[in-house]
């Protein structure tokens, strides 16, 4: 068949003959496919290079590599769709089913006359924003094009959903999914939510309609937008008047048999328990009811016995279930709004008092906290749910909770807004790398300053520490250094636990940066003493100890500390910390030339990297595994491919580390020119990062490469620079390795 489908709405997806194909790991390669698919004319190679690559990345080579990967996706036997020559590149889309193209084609036609099935089919193909997650905001031309395509797709989908809801108005059940989709797409559109409220009321679902009404009003007001009255008119004009439950249950639940004599018994404890069960539906259980209702076990048991006898509730191994869902809706609607919010708050407090065990519990916590009307409680619920998701590597859900929580903090003021916003930013950064990391770091520093002014020392420490991690990850070492020190200063008047965390994190950061190592050791010693006295365990302590031991060339001691840190991180659910501890253990394996052990550790890192956020962790694990393949099997091709993805992940410190290790292997295999190129690239990254140890090792390797190539001028130049760097604070293991390299006799000429 060779049928090909390309879905650009939501995550990029390529489907051939009904099978979803694996996509290249490179984000730029995927972006290139989308860009070609939306342009019918050939595009020059120069334009594509300027669009997606930077000069140091060898744009033309990267483009060739990306095109080779795309051919495997789009070309099929007898059908070559990707066409490239010396000047230009194009993609023949004449027989490719592209979701966004179909959407625009349909919306440009007469929607009022179009077939309903065709409209619905196209509407259901909208899986999210155009190229979700592939904005590439560092590349301004591509980013601008992507945003324009996204806006156009949103407008077209909105038009399509509006038409569907209007044309299906006489069939509310049929129109409802499209109304929900319309509201998700345009949450601040009062017309969309008013239509949803009308449909829910027409389907006799007043509880959901009221929730949508309240949510719509709150969101629109929080966004600072005017309300035009459509929501309230939809509620008043459409709302039916159901027969009160206590007067006539049977008529409120059509086509069911309800025992006679129900009404007199639905009083007192039974009525109270049924109300709580309605709030908890469909997941009510005996334990939660006993905690939130305030009834003792005996009274609760009697009330449930009455409810079961009258077949209002079924009680079994799965918990408590209403026999008729409409009964739960009416009971819920009969509770006054103020009492209802109080009850939701009580349930949220009960759920928050115990550790979360599953996603259902996390979603329940968030639901009841939001329904309580208490913004503070709702934001805290988002934080707890987000942290639970991070522990279980549910990063998209954690990101969603954090973003929802940050939207809630916009309606707050004072200290609580600052503290909650900082905790939510912490969840957000752990869930996914920031699209605009410089703005993100600036935002948390501003919040940290405000926390300091309010006397919230623990949260000030969190903000500075978070900013330090963000800047360290992107090579802004000087700023990372200053903000790490500021995190420690902020908590000098704080409680013991905060002081331990601040000193340990600052020592860890200074050790990573190879800055002020005496201060790092002093802070670490103070943190250890205080932690021992107060019985406080925190993974940054052994991580910092491991880094300082590694710097001193005490590998066995460092490995012990890193294993301890990995265990603590794993127990605390800190997956990024766990990865970093394993990464440090891998460096020790590589320096010991223990590639068999390193390969096994890489497999663990790869498995963990798949579950982490979409950062540089997974590309690094893959590149490290490919390096081990080179060492063990003398096959360097996989490493070269993996490096391309790692370069695109913008992780200079990880890239420099692996390039230097590969250059050592190249020299051992007499591939001097390849070693020179890799050490040269590593030196560029190390200079940007201001990493003296990596600079020294790169210069020593380059001096050895020049010696073997008979280039005495460059050998002397790199040797002199290396000797000067040896006078600086340098890791002892790097110093040892460099002295060995520099000790080679200058006169010897190897090929």
List keywords for this structure.
mainly alpha; 9 strands; 37 helices; DNA-binding; three-stranded antiparallel sheet; four-stranded mixed sheet; Arc Repressor Mutant, subunit A; 751 residues; Transcriptional regulator
SSE layout and pairings?
Elements lengths: L3 E4 L5 E4 L2 E2 L6 H11 L5 E2 H8 L6 H16 L7 E3 L3 E4 L4 E3 H9 L8 H9 L15 H28 L4 H14 L4 H13 L3 H17 L7 H9 L10 H4 L9 H4 L2 H13 L5 H8 L3 H13 L3 E4 L2 E4 L2 H10 L2 H16 L6 H13 L3 H17 L3 H15 L4 H18 L5 H17 L3 H17 L3 H14 L5 H18 L3 H18 L5 H12 L3 H18 L2 H17 L3 H17 L5 H17 L3 H12 L3 H17 L3 H18 L2 H18 L2 H14 L6 H11 L9
Parallel strand pairs: 1-7
Antiparallel strand pairs: 1-2, 2-3, 4-6, 5-6, 8-9
Tell me about this structure.
With 751 residues, the chain is mainly alpha-helical. 69% of the residues lie in helices and 4% in strands. The strands form three sheets. Strands 3-2-1-7 form a four-stranded mixed β-sheet. A three-stranded antiparallel β-sheet has the order 4-6-5. A hairpin with a 5-residue loop joins β1 and β2. α31 (617-633) packs antiparallel against α32 (637-648) and α34 (672-689) packs antiparallel against α35 (692-709).
């Amino acid at each position: 068949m060779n049928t090909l489908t390309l879905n650009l709405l939501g995550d990029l997806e390529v489907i051939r003959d009904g099978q979803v194909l694996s996509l290249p790991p490179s984000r730029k390669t995927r972006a290139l496919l989308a860009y070609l698919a939306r342009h019918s004319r050939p595009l020059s190679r120069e334009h594509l290079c300027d669009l997606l690559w930077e000069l140091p990345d060898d744009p033309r080579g990267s483009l060739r590599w990306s095109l080779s990967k795309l051919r495997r996706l789009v070309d099929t036997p007898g059908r070559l769709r990707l066409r490239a020559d010396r000047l230009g590149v194009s993609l023949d889309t004449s027989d490719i089913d592209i979701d966004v193209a179909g959407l625009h084609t349909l919306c440009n036609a007469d929607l009022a006359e179009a077939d309903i099935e065709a409209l619905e089919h196209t509407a259901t193909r909208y899986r999210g924003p155009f190229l979700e997650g592939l904005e590439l905001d560092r590349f301004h031309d591509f980013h601008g094009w992507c945003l324009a395509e996204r806006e156009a797709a949103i407008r077209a989908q909105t038009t399509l959903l509006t038409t569907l809801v209007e044309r299906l108005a006489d069939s509310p059940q049929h129109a409802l999914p499209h109304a929900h989709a319309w509201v998700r797409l345009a949450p601040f559109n009062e017309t969309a939510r008013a239509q949803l409220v009308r449909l829910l009321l027409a389907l006799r679902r007043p509880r959901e309609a009221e929730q949508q009404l309240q949510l719509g009003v709150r969101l629109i007001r929080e966004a600072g937008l005017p309300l035009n009255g459509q929501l309230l008119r939809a509620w008043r004009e459409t709302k039916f008047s159901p027969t009160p439950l206590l007067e006539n249950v049977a008529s409120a639940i059509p086509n069911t048999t309800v025992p006679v004599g129900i009404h007199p018994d639905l009083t007192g404890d039974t009525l109270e328990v049924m109300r709580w069960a309605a709030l908890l539906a469909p997941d009510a259980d005996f334990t939660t009811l006993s905690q939130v209702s305030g009834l003792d076990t005996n009274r609760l048991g009697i009330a449930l016995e009455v409810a079961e006898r009258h077949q209002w509730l079924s009680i079994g191994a799965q918990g408590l279930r209403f026999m008729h869902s409409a009964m739960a809706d009416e009971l819920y609607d009969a509770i006054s709004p103020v009492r209802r919010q109080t009850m939701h708050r009580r349930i949220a407090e009960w759920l928050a008092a115990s550790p979360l065990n599953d996603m259902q519990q996390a979603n329940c916590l968030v639901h009841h906290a939001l329904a309580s009307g208490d913004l503070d409680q709702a934001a805290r619920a988002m934080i707890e749910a987000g942290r639970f998701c991070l522990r279980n590597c549910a990063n998209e859900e954690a990101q969603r909770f954090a973003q929802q929580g940050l939207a809630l903090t916009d309606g707050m003021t004072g200290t609580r807004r600052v503290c909650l916003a900082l905790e939510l930013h912490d969840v957000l950064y752990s869930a996914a790398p920031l699209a605009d990391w410089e703005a993100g770091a600036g935002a948390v520093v501003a919040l940290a300053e405000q926390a300091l002014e309010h006397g919230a020392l623990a949260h000030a420490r969190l903000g500075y520490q978070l900013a330090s991690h963000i800047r360290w990850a992107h090579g802004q070492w000087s700023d990372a250094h200053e903000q790490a020190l500021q995190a420690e200063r902020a908590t000098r008047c704080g409680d013991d636990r905060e002081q331990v965390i601040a000193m340990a994190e600052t020592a860890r950061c200074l050790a990573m940066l190879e800055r002020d190592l005496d201060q790092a050791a002093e802070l670490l010693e103070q943190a250890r003493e205080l932690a021992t006295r107060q019985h406080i365990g925190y993974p940054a302590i052994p991580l910092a100890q491991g880094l300082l031991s590694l710097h001193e060339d005490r590998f066995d001691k460092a490995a012990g500390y890193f294993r301890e840190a990995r265990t603590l991180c794993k127990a605390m659910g800190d997956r990024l910390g766990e990865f970093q501890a394993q990464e440090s253990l891998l460096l020790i394996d590589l320096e010991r030339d223990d590639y068999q052990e390193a390969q096994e550790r890489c497999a663990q890192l790869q498995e963990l990297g798949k579950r982490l956020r979409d950062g540089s962790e997974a590309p690094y694990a893959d590149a490290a595994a490919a390096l081990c393949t080179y060492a063990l099997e003398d096959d360097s091709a996989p490493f070269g491919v993996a490096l391309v993805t790692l370069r695109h992940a913008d992780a200079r410190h990880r890239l420099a580390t692996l390039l230097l290790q590969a250059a050592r292997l190249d020299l051992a295999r007499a591939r001097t020119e390849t070693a020179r190129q890799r050490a040269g690239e590593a030196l560029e990254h190390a200079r940007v990062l201001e990493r003296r140890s990596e600079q020294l090792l790169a210069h020593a390797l380059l001096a050895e490469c020049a010696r073997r190539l008979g280039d005495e001028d460059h050998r002397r130049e790199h040797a002199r620079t290396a000797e000067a760097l040896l006078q600086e604070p340098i890791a002892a293991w790097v110093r040892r390795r460099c002295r060995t390299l520099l000790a080679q006799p200058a006169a010897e000429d190897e090929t």
